[in-house]
Design a protein that fits this description.
- The structure is a single chain.
- Helix content is about 15%, strand content about 45%.
- The protein contains two helices and ten strands; from the N terminus they run αββββββββββα.
- The protein has a ten-stranded antiparallel sheet.
Length: about 200
């Protein structure tokens, strides 16, 4: 009787492992990438953030309306010129595909900078640093680092504010458009190897 019980337990555990192998616990939905081919042979992809409805968090010193309301921003002088925001990130089809963080700071050594981290759970993350003192309504910065799908990419990303002029309620509404232009370094290495060989 004990032997039958132990064999049943062992077979049950083995059955669970076999079942987990064939049926994934998490089936991460991946929204199709909307990548366009650029004239220079690279690729481009556009992301959007609708303001204020996609804003998840905002923090800055002296701000009277924090989001979430319970957020207590540090009063330390080191954070006086720092503004941090967290957004939902949308693709060209207006589907939420990830999150984006934007940090704007005025550093005495680096000057005014804006840093973006775009995180797409099914694809990876990309880090972009943009000089904030760019003239005009569009800022452009380089892709500084990436993970998974973005690890081998080089290029730039532009940040543009597109205002929504339909509302008359006095609140700044619109969207932030992020246009990423990139090329994979894997293809560059393959071309170099073909030319050398």
């Amino acid at each position: 009787m004990i032997r039958t019980f132990i064999v049943g337990i062992v077979l049950g555990i083995a059955g669970v492992f076999v079942g987990l192998h064939y049926v994934p616990v998490v089936d991460q939905h991946r929204e199709s990438s909307i990548v366009a081919v650029s004239l220079n042979g690279g690729n481009s992809e556009t992301f959007y953030v609708k303001v204020p409805m996609d804003r998840i968090m905002i923090g800055a010193q002296g701000r009277t309306t924090a989001l979430p309301p319970e957020l207590m921003w540090p009063e330390d002088e080191r954070f006086s010129d720092v503004r941090a925001e967290l957004f939902k990130l949308r693709n060209s089809r207006d589907a939420v595909i990830g999150v984006a963080s934007r940090i704007a700071a005025d550093d005495p050594d680096l000057g005014a900078i804006v840093e973006w981290v775009l995180h797409l759970p099914a694809r990876g993350s990309v880090f972009v640093r943009i000089p904030a003192d760019t003239a005009g309504s569009q800022r452009v910065g380089d892709l500084a680092a990436g993970t998974r799908e973005f690890a081998t990419l080089v290029g730039d990303m532009s940040e543009s504010w597109v205002p929504d002029t339909t509302g008359d309620d006095g609140v700044a509404t619109g969207r932030i458009e992020l246009l990423m232009n990139f090329v994979s370094t894997e293809f560059e290495r393959d071309d170099d190897e073909e030319e050398a060989g």
